[in-house]
Amino acid sequence: MDSLLRIGNGPEPESLDPQRMSSVSALNIARDLGEGLTRIAADGRVLPAAAQGWQIADGGRRYTFELRDHLHWSNGEALTASDFVDGLRRAVDPATGSPFAQLLSPIANADAITGGKAPVSMLAAWALSPTRLQILLKQPTPYFPSLLAHPVSFPVYGPALARYGRGFARPGRLVSNGAYQLVDWQVQAQVELRRNAHYWDDADTHIDRVQYLPTDDIASELQRYRANEIDVSSEIPLVQAPALRTQFGAQLHVAPYLGSYYYGFNVQQPPFAGRRDLRLALSLAIDRELIVDKVMNGLALPAYGWVPPGVADYRAQSPAWASWSRQKSVSEAKRLYAACGYSKDRPLRIELRYNTHDDHKRIATVIAAMWKQTLGVETSLINEENKVFLAQRRLRRITQVFRASWIGDYDDPSSFLDVLTARNGRNDMGWHDQTYDALIDSAAQQADPRRRAALLERAERRAVDDMPFIPIYWYVSKHLVKPRVRGWHDNLLDVHYSKDLRLDDPAD
Asked: Mind telling me which PANTHER family this protein's record contains (predicted)?
């Protein structure tokens, strides 16, 4: 009998196109369907994947990757270095609209291409032979191999793309190169994968089928876990955390996670455009410790900056007010609010958007109450289905304040700081600061690690001071994992490949 792993996966994935997806739920599936030149180990190390190794030359600027022998697509056709070049070019092509195109910014000419100033053929990535790929960087980028584990860098099967266009990433059409292939996608029900017999390491893949089960209702997901209908949960209902610790013991995995939960301001539209003091007033009015202790049941850390703690060789920056007493924070919030022309008799009226999720609703309700009690702000809470919510954020036409999160794609501060640059497609706040961008660019050209870190710290301090976002808490990963699942390792990036897991016995 085929072995089946059932994974709770949060919101419905918006796409299975590796160059166009953006959500964590989509990326989870992509890492099973596809494979980059590298992969991330449980301890954060970068390991060879489709590439068996690489050489570095020209002072750290030129990478030459040697592909493994006998690589194939899921339809049995040969996978070549040109397919990886095609994937990289498609990712930076403005016509693709890739949310993660900026990850490939270290490649020479990538920024000019994404900015519409150069053709995609100018990307400094070439197939030297069917099994050799060369990439030239703008400047040495020590973390570059880790970027190639991200799905945005995955190869693309040209014939399917040519035939179906943007509709190629569907069952019966998607040809992939990872340990699994797509066999079924029922919206709001399941995405089913089956083992790819043509995968180079199929002999070490032990699970035959994987089902990703979407849900916006974490309580329902917990019920399915209790009923043995899923093996791994995407998270847990925060209100039930104490009881779940008692009931499930070691099945509950809580671990540090490179992720930030925040509220973004639309700084290109009223009432927050050019009004830093108003943004700061709303931030100061939030009691983060109360949210973490009472709403999150201790399963988070209060956040005051942009880059989470724990990033390798970096000192995360916090504003001076992070150490203020609650009384002092409230007093300053009221002063700034009044100075901006608002009062309880003339309140600020705003809309706060969040995607469907019980915990997002609870947090939004608590924060709206804090704003009302402390300042008199009248907040309209708007709950939207995830795809609609993401589209509204990016258009920035009607959004004012929105719930957001950022999960590190690799263990480096640039994974967070690059998001705030004017050129980044994921800068949904529309925040533009020339000095900030210059500091990020200078850091990218700095070979000395300590000097690079100092430039990035200056950049973060500038962003934190201008407050285009409200940091709320740092994530921890929270999964329930059945004892029958073997090989699960908690890690800072919360990246898990189904090919690395085993099942002890059939599900009950």
From this structure: PERIPLASMIC BINDING COMPONENT OF ABC TRANSPORTER, PERIPLASMIC OLIGOPEPTIDE-BINDING PROTEIN-RELATED
